[in-house]
Amino acid sequence: MASDVRRVTVGARTFNVVGGHDKFWDTCEGGWEASTFEALTSRLGSGKTFVDVGAWIGPMTLVAAACGARVVAYEPDPAAAHELAENVALNPSFDVAIERVALWTSTGTRQLRGGPAGLGESMSSFSGRAGRVGATTVATIDAREAARSWPPDALVKIDVEGAEYWLLPRLRPFIAEHRPTMVLSVHAYDVRASLAGWPSPVRRVVHHCHHAARTVPLLWAIRGYGTVRASDHDRPQWHPVSVRDLMLRMWERELLLERT
Predict the structure, then answer these.
(1) Which of 8, 16, 77, 242 could disulfide-link 124, Cβ–Cβ 3.0 to 4.6 Å?
(2) How many CA atoms lie within 13 A of 209 on its CB side?
(3) Verdict on whether the full-model pTM lies above 0.85
C-alpha cells in the first residue's frame, strides 16, 4: 500500500483514504458524529441506497458503501470531489456514483465560495458571508428532477451549509410521497450583524421575520414524519424534538427524521 494511503475505521467500518486530511480522519476515528454514523450503519446494507447530498471527501459515503449500500454522492466543490473520487477508487468493491453538481432550485450554474480555509474544505457554500476564501462556478441541478431517480426507500443525508432552507422545499414532493429516512444538517443564521446601527426593536423584528421566512418552508417540507430526533453539540445522542423546538431554536444541529 502506498505511503499516502491510510486505512481508517469509522462507525465500525474500515476502508482506505488518501492522505491530506489526517486530522479529520483522526477526529472521525475518535468519535466525531458517532450518532450519525450509527444511524447509517444500523439502517444500511446490501440492497439499500444511500443518497449523500454534500458528500465532501466522503466520510458518510465511504461508511455507507462499506455497509454494502449503493451510494449516490453529490459534491460540487471540484477539490473535494476530486479527493472523494480518489477515496472511492481506493476501495474498488464500493458501489458509488459521484455526481459533481449541486442540488439546487434550478438547473444551471452558480458561484460556490470556499470556507475559511478555501475550496476543498468542508464549508464551501453558496453563502456570501465574510471569511470565505476563493470561489468557482459549479453546475447545479434541479433537486426535484434529481430526486425522481432516487429509490423510494433511499436513506438521504443532506449537509449543504445553509442551502437546506432552499433545497428542502424543492424536495417536498419526494419527501411527502415517500417519507425517506433522512439525516439533515441544519445551520444557524443571524442577520442581526448586518443590521448594526439599526434601533434594537427594529433589529429584533427584522430578525424574527427573516427567521420565520427561512424556517417555515423547511419545516413544512418535513412535516408528517412520525419521529424527529436531534443531535446537538451539548447533547450528541439522538433525542426527540418537537416542531415548536425546531421553530424557536434553529441552530446548527443534526436531525434524524423517520416515518415512524
Answers:
(1) 77
(2) 6
(3) yes
Decide: 70 and 49 in contact? Cβ < 8 Å. Answer: yes
Q: Give Cα 54 to chain centroid, integer Å.
A: 5
Q: In the chain, how many H helices and how many E strands?
A: 9, 13
Residue 50, exposed/middle/buried by CB under 10 A (0-12, 13-18, 19+)? buried
pLDDT at 205: 73
Q: Which residues contact 203 (CB under 8 A, 6 or more apart)?
A: 192, 195
CB 165 within 8 Å of CB 125:
no
**1-49 pLDDT, tens digit each:** 445 999 999 999 999 999 999 999 999 999 999 999 999 999 999 999 9
The C-alpha atoms of residue 120 and residue 71 are separated, in whole angstroms, by 21
Cβ atoms of residues 41 and 155 within 8 Å = no
Instruction: State the amino acid at position 49 in one-letter form.
Output: T
CB-based contacts of 230, cutoff 8 Å, min separation 6: 238, 239, 241, 245, 253, 254, 255, 256
Q: Which one-letter amino acid corresponds to residue 44?
A: L
Instruction: Report d(CA 57, CA 88) in Å as an integer.
Output: 9
> What is the DSSP annotation of 161-186?
TTTHHHHHHHTHHHHHHH---EEEEE
